[in-house]
Amino acid sequence: LQQGRELGTTGLSRFESLTAADQVLTAEEAVSVTPDLMLAIESAGVAISKNARVVSIGSTEQQIEAAVLKCQEVVSECTREWFAGEPLREAVLSPFVIDKTEVTVDEFRLFVEENNFVTLAEKQGRSLRVEPSGLEANPVDGLNWRNGYAGSSAQELGGYPVTHVSLDDATSYCEFQGKRLPTEAEWEYVSRTPQLLDFPWGNEWRPELASWSGPAVAVASFPASASGHYDFVGSVTEWTSTPSTDGYFILKGSSRFDDNVATIRLAVQREFLPEYSGDNVGFRCAQDKNDWASTP
Question: What is the pLDDT, as a whole number, of residue 3?
Fold first, then answer.
């Protein structure tokens, strides 16, 4: 359903096969779930909180058309298929908060030291280094979160977002903190606000407000987004807990290796296998709450 499959409009068939998170419905943005709608959801065996919200995610037809045209300025063969993962749809969200910044190298180091944790890249003895063009990634022996930034140690770059972490590595960190990874819908709802912004600051691309097509920077090096968060664009792409198809998981946000404004947009989906580990991927955590007081 999160991949834009056809949804029914009446009856319990709308709620069959929905999981406990990111249930997809048809509704207006950011409104309370009505008693009748709640009863229908519960009758279908889906448990969500009584103060859930129905929120819009994805892009309108006009936004997708504009993205295709912008994309073709850089890549002539760009088509609508590049944006197939972002049709306008709705999701039911229970109260939550999402971290203001991505997890840093220093924060991850404390977790590793306290738990004697070994990442997948360390176990395998290698990780991927993305070429400056952003078009190719090659395995490098001995590469992991400790030396993830070329020419610098983890101690030197403690405030930078941690990289070379797999989905399981990221999940383990968040769980140790009493948190979890955000879902795709949660990440997009906070980063784009109910106004479905293309970028954290608005709908116009402003290259001076993000780390893109260039060197890495520490977290929160640029102004906060409209929701009070940092680095939803640029720096690193972020894991979510939302599965895609064929064993892949959805990641959100662009990395510093991206240079196509159309694919830097917040609505864009990226998909990697859970064991992926590279210098373009990091994460932030989310946490369930009893109410919406802490969520923008």
Answer: 26
Structural tokens at position 218: 């520490």
**d(C-alpha 2, C-alpha 243), whole Å:** 9
Indicate if the alpha-carbon torsion angle 258, 263, 269, 273 is positive or negative: negative
Intra-chain end-to-end CA distance of the chain, in Å = 26
Q: Does the pLDDT at position 294 exceed 70?
A: yes
Contact 222, 57 (CB under 8 A): no
Contact 95, 295 (CB under 8 A): yes
C-beta atoms surrounding 130 within 10 Å: 18
The whole-number pLDDT of residue 28 equals 38
- Would you tell me the crossing angle of helices 167-176 and 105-115 to the nearest 10 degrees? 80
Per-residue pLDDT tens digits for 90-132:
888 989 999 999 999 999 999 999 999 999 999 999 999 998 7
Model-wide pTM > 0.90:
no
Average pLDDT of every residue of the chain: 84
* Whole-angstrom distance, CA of residue 120 vs CA of residue 128: 12
Contact between 250 and 266 (Cβ < 8 Å): no
- The answer to whether 236 touches 255, Cβ cutoff 8 Å, is yes
* Cα 117 from Cα 106, distance rounded (Å): 14
Q: How far apart are CA 266 and CA 200, in angstroms?
A: 8
Phi and psi based region of residue 192 (left: phi greater than 0; alpha: psi -120 to 50; beta: remaining): alpha
